[in-house]
Amino acid sequence: MDIKNNFTSIEQITNQYLSNQTNKPINNKNEGLSFNQVLEQTRINSRNVSELKFSKHADLRLAQRNISLSEDQISRLNEGAKRAMEKGINESLVIMDDLTFIVNVKNSTVVTAMDMESSKENVFTNIDGAVII
Tens digits of per-residue pLDDT, 27-58? Predict the structure, then answer.
């Protein structure tokens, strides 16, 4: 039994792949942009904050502190996280109305939530930026 005839060689696959690619038109939407511009666009698109999630800890804090968010507040919180992402912030303090949130921007996750009563110490650690909305 000749095993060699039952498998496609790397050369055959390469030739097949390359011949299929040469007939396809190239549509390069990034034509004329520098490498750094393309890299920045890719970074922003891949980290686009579309909808924040709430960690279990944040959900617990919202319940313990009797905080309920309106649709408008959730929308504004998402906007704050988006603005933080655009500035390159990874762990952001987001202040909105009388509420304060710590948001892990990279993971699009609200880590914790506080009302004014709970944040009287006004000391926030492990953040690298703040957004006030």
Answer: 555 567 788 777 777 666 555 545 899 999 99
- Could you state, in order of their start, the residue ranges of all structural domains in the chain? 49-132
Closest CA to 132 of 50, 68, 76, 54: 76
* pTM (global) more than 0.85: no
Cα 38 off chain centre by? 17
Long-range CB pairs of 79-85 (<8 Å, 24+ gap) are: 79/133, 80/131, 80/133, 81/49, 81/52, 81/105, 81/108, 81/131, 82/48, 82/49, 83/131, 83/133, 84/129, 84/131, 85/44, 85/47, 85/48, 85/49
Pair 80, 92: CB distance under 8 Å: yes
Q: Where are the alpha helices (DSSP H) in the chain?
A: 10-22, 35-46, 56-64, 71-86
DSSP 105: T
